[in-house]
Amino acid sequence: MGYQVVIVGLGPAGLMAARTLAKNKINFLAIDNKKKIGLPLKCGEGVREDKFVNFFGDKKYNFVKNKITEHEVIYKGLHRVVVYNVLELDRPKFEQWLAAPIKSRIRLKTRCDDIKTREDCIEVITNKGTIKSDLVILANGCDFKFQKKLGLVKKKQIVILGYGGIYKVNNVKQDRFQYYFNDGFFGYLWLFPKSRNLANIGFGALNTNKSVKETFNKLLRRHNIKAKQLSEYAGLVSCSGPIDKTYDDRLLVCGTAAGFVHAGTGEGIYFALESGKQAAEIAVKALKNKRFDKAFLKSYEKGWRKEFGKGMKGGIIFRDLLFLGLRYKKVGFLLKNPTDKEVKDMIINGKIPAKAKLAWFIGRILLLCYKNSKQIQRL
Ligand SMILES: Cc1cc2nc3c(=O)[nH]c(=O)nc-3n(C[C@H](O)[C@H](O)[C@H](O)COP(=O)(O)OP(=O)(O)OC[C@H]3O[C@@H](n4cnc5c(N)ncnc54)[C@H](O)[C@@H]3O)c2cc1C
Q1: Mean pLDDT, to the nearest integer, of 354-365?
Q2: Is the pLDDT of residue 379 over 50?
Q3: Which protein residue has the closest C-alpha to ligand 1 atom 35?
Q4: Residue 56 Cα, ligand 1 centroid: separation in angstroms?
Q5: Ligand 1 atom nearest to 233, measured from its CA
Q6: What is the pLDDT of residues 92-110, one digit of tens each?
Q7: Nearest-atom index, ligand 1, CA of 126
Q8: How far apart are CA 262 and CA 241, in angstroms?
């Protein structure tokens, strides 16, 4: 047997899993296709302050660039400010810091091409050969091909392309994130300051028929955002919510690979860190008990559902309401009506107000009727 555990993918989920395994003195190997940890950047880099401090005990790290206290939603004439603390990171430096204590266990430029479960081991087939272990933690981000092959995901995944970059800006309000909504785009443009003169600005939407970069630049002009691009990124965000099953024999899936992204906002760093940690903790238990079967590994699902399952469900409802609002030009209603507490509860804790839930339910029934009537017409 090569290793006790192999981790595939070293974003926040895989790195957090690796740190947890190292703490528990597990013999593991962590592989990633990329050349350098943390690069290329493909993210808005915002993370919840309370959860971050819970994980790392502090927030005074050189990769924490800014503390945000206000979130401003902008849609036509509407400006809505909600108070909630978020940290704006330098994510490449954050991931390099996460990787530092486990450097000797990492193999970069190593691409997983297949995963095969055997009776006595699990094989990770890579461009550099086959690696055997007792267990695999799959944390390979927004690519669901292994999960599909293993029957862990059946539905077609909703995936959004995000485009943005780091920008020189002029004297922005440093403690405020801004979110710009526009009719016709099922998504939003974000401006996350790192300082008064530097910001991460990006845009993600479902139905951008034109080039996402072109639309992004058009929206910058429309909202009169004066910014000079220093670097650019493009990346995929999963908006379907959790996959059907996040475990299998000898396998645990975490982070975006498990669909752990808030389906309405695209937030995923916290869910990646938490699920990576939980997956590793279950792996430690499995190794202790020599139990690698799915019946034993199932307890992983209980754990993440308890921690953020409600948030995931709420994210899906929030996404659908947002799409409906944007489609029927009623997003002002959705953004204006809830109280500040309700908005925070919806986005942070996945608690959807009863009225909004009812609207979502009616919306789903109408959509179902519409689909059925189309089918009947075709018949
Ligand atoms: C444009 C954009 C903006 C975002 N903004 C935010 C934000 O502001 N805040 C927030 O919380 N979330 C944000 N997210 C979401 C967040 O980036 C993800 O949820 C987070 O990166 C998930 O971490 P992960 O470790 O699961 O996956 P990833 O960070 O995607 O890491 C997966 C790793 O697996 C590797 N890999 C993939 N396939 C293979 C393979 N076959 N073999 C080996 N290695 C492989 C990749 O190289 C990568 O390093 C954003 C996402 C995008 C695209």
Answers
A1: 80
A2: no
A3: 9
A4: 20
A5: 1
A6: 999 999 999 999 999 999 9
A7: 42
A8: 7
Residue 8 CA to ligand 1 center (angstroms) comes to 13
Q: Which atom of ligand 1 is nearest to the CA of 269?
A: 11
Pocket of ligand 1 (CB under 6 A): 8-14, 31-34, 42-47, 111-112, 139-143, 162, 202, 204, 235-237, 255-257, 261, 266-270, 272
Q: Which atom of ligand 1 is nearest to the CA of 235?
A: 53
Q: How far is the CA of 64 from the centre of ligand 1 (A)?
A: 18
3-state secondary structure the chain: CCEEEEEECCCHHHHHHHHHHHHCCCCEEEECCCCCCCCCCCCCCEEEHHHHHHHHCCCCCCCEEEEEEEEEEEECCEEEEEEEEEEEECHHHHHHHHHHHHHHHEECCCCEEEEEECCCCEEEEECCEEEEEEEEEECCCCCCHHHHHCCCCCCCCCEEEEEEEEEEECCCCCCEEEEECCCCCCEEEEEEEEECCEEEEEEEECCCCCCHHHHHHHHHHHCCCCEEEEEEEEEEEECCCCCCCCEECCEEECHHHHCCCCCCCCCCHHHHHHHHHHHHHHHHHHHHHCCCCHHHHCHHHHHHHHHHHHHHHHHHHHHHHHHHHHHCCCHHHHHHCCCHHHHHHHHHHCCCCHHHHHHHHHHHHHHHHHHHHHHHHHC
pLDDT digits (tens, 9 = 90+) for 292-331: 999 999 999 999 999 999 999 999 998 888 888 887 777 7
What's the whole-number mean pLDDT along residues 73-80?
90
Residues belonging to the chain: 379
Give me the pLDDT at residue 185, please. Answer: 82
* Domains, in order of start, for the chain: 3-45+90-155+243-297 (3.50.50.60), 159-238 (3.30.9.10), 315-378 (no CATH)
